[in-house]
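Exercise 7 asks you to align residues with tokens for two separate proteins.
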Amino acid sequence: MIIPFAITAFVIAADQISKYIVKTNMELYDSFPVVKNILNIRYIENEGASFGMLKDHRWVFMVLSTVALVFMGAVIVYLNRKAVKRGNIYISSALALMFGGGIGNMIDRFINVSARSDSSIKVVVDFLEFDFVDFAVFNVADSFICIGSVLFCICIFAGKYRLAPPSEQPV
């Protein structure tokens, strides 16, 4: 059970440290290239959910996010309490990536006040911008949520999880 929670702790730390570095070393809306024509660091603030959705309905998103995080945490604990069976570590790790990313963004939504001087709105710091595609600016937590989601789907489709020994699995 230690591996999923170590992954979760790593994701939260990487996310919060990267956001802190950006917020303390850049002005809002500043941008600079990391890899020319591919990746920029651009400091923006997101008041809503993904892509700024639900900006004016923050409480709905906060409730849904909290329910999803509690559910993911419970599933991780459940999968690992059934004795670590071959394959459960993969799906638990995928969930831990999503769980850590969700917590990282939730921390921002509770404590991170906007850099705008006239605002007391809580925001998520986003700063990773791909130059070669017109897409949203995102952060480390969002990246881990996406990676975890892909790994989770791979685990499900590949059957890389077990709730009972192979001899007790239904046919």
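Second protein for Exercise 7:
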Amino acid sequence: MTRRRARPRKRRLRRTILRVLRGSFRHIGRFSPSLSARLAEHMFRTPPRYRRLKREERCLSLARRSATPYARGTLPTFTWGRGPRVLLVHGWGGHAGRLTPFVQPLVHAGFSVVAFDAPAHGRASGRRSGMPEFIAAIRAVARARGPFEAAIGHSLGAAACALALYEGLDFRSLVLLAPPADPEKYSGRFAKFFCLPEHTHAAMKRRLMSRYRLEWEQLRVSRGPGASRARLLVFHDPRDWKVPFQDGEEIVASWPRAELVRASGVGHHRIVRDPEVIGRAVQFLAGGSALRPAERPPRRRRPALRPALVS
């Protein structure tokens, strides 16, 4: 069986499993509320696994590879270039290859670039993950490969970069791509998608906070940067259907030195490889302003990025 024929079958199988699960929680909850909550927590902490694309593999093959110790396992880590270090952090279900379109422009700008597979992602050890694991992984990579001048994060990885500032990391600059402002809201979206009864959703949230010994408020990015004085640049598509544009607005409004740029037409995933987003992000990290177009010709026609808010 060829890979092309196998992939549609796997997608159909995943869709079938999801349909079954979406209808099962209300029935399980009637007989065993605790089992329903445990199953929901298990699913909430289990990331999907996506293969690396050929172009991602090519870029990763040019890196200096290492293994960063983390908890009971290791995190595959990749380094390119020489100079001030920039950390790349992928999102939920991603891997180190997702942000590799940033590598060459950053290296050409004089930076060293570091990327890693987060816990239970890519080829990292583990099967469960979440925001606290992402933050702990960033800290582990910073201890082993830092210090870092800046970080670029996507989606959940973007939020983890911002929250890592509360854990004592000292980024001078942050670039966040489609960042969620409040992960508690996404537990609600998860509950709605899987048709969780209200009591199951509440029990799942209690189990998560007990596991991590945290309150949801501690994971809210829109509470600001704490004591950090890091500069912040946020890119967000106003039509992002996975993480609403309002989340980017909330984060920038809470941050003293922040810029928000409307990345129209790039969606939630294409934002990580859009040439204009990459050009402006690199310009920002190199000391320029993202509010001016990047000093290079665009690769393809696309609606121009516009500054939405400066604070």
